[in-house]
Design a protein that fits this description.
This protein is α/β, with parallel strands linked by helices. The protein has 2 domains: 120 residues, Rossmann fold (3-Layer(aba) Sandwich); 96 residues, Arc Repressor Mutant, subunit A. β3, α3 and β4 form a beta-alpha-beta unit. It is elongated. The chain starts with 7 loop residues before the first strand and ends with a strand.
């Protein structure tokens, strides 16, 4: 059994020979492969390339892989399969607690790894909600059609405003950290541009809130991030 062409895997490993071998085998089995050799490149690729699954080595040169898992789980539910030489139970428990979906130890059998990746993608596909509309007060946010209506009237949003609102809507009721919003909506080169968030949050409140000065739905947690409350 091979993956369909639509299945894209992000391979994160700083060992060039292993990353190359994984890429060759994955492509031979029908996967589209993206590679990253460190945490920064991995987070950037996850935000811009939208992989279906991430194969993550924990021993990265700039950040520990567990920090990458925590960072990813701040804004995405993409399945993460850890590939690591660490065989201690504590390492596995920590990775899974942080949000990894599976844990494969080195050395490994390639056919087993392929099966784990396919299973992770299947679970993610079956877990996706069938409801594409998020209702927030008098707002109906249609994630499939990428539009929002207020009291039945469509509200015109810029692409950046929509990206900001969509990310909050997909995490309804949960705090989304500032850095994750900047990474997902603007890209990794804008992680310190916190003033962008204040400007666009104000624009969204003017369009979506009854009283923009006293918002009920788009809430700020000072110094931390934003929450869309139902």
């Amino acid at each position: 059994m091979t993956a369909t062409a639509a299945h894209r895997v992000l391979v994160v490993d700083d060992e060039p020979a292993l990353a190359r071998a994984l890429a060759i085998n994955l492509r031979a089995n029908g996967w589209e492969v993206i590679t990253a050799a460190d945490a920064k490149a991995a987070l950037d690729a996850a935000a811009t390339q939208h992989p279906d699954v991430i194969l993550l080595d924990l021993g990265l040169p700039d950040l520990d892989g567990t920090e990458v898992i925590a960072g990813l789980r701040g804004w995405t539910s993409v399945p993460i399969v850890v590939l690591s030489a660490r065989q201690h139970g504590e390492d596995k428990v920590e990775a899974l607690d942080l949000g990894a979906d599976d844990y494969v130890t080195k050395p490994f059998a390639m056919n087993e790894l392929m099966a784990r990746l396919r299973a992770a993608v299947r679970r993610a596909s079956s877990a996706e909600p069938s409801e594409s509309q998020v209702v927030v007060g008098d707002l109906v946010i249609d994630l499939a059609k990428k539009r929002v209506r207020r009291d039945g009237v469509e509200v015109r949003l810029t692409p950046t405003e929509w990206g900001f609102l969509e990310l909050l809507a997909r995490n309804l009721g949960r705090l989304v950290p500032r850095e994750q919003i900047l990474r997902e909506v603007w890209g990794t080169g804008y992680l310190h541009e916190h003033h962008y968030l204040r400007v666009y949050a104000a624009q969204l409140r003017r369009k979506l809130e009854d009283d923009p000065s006293r918002p009920r739905h788009l809430l700020t947690s000072s110094g931390m991030g934003y929450t869309l409350e139902p």
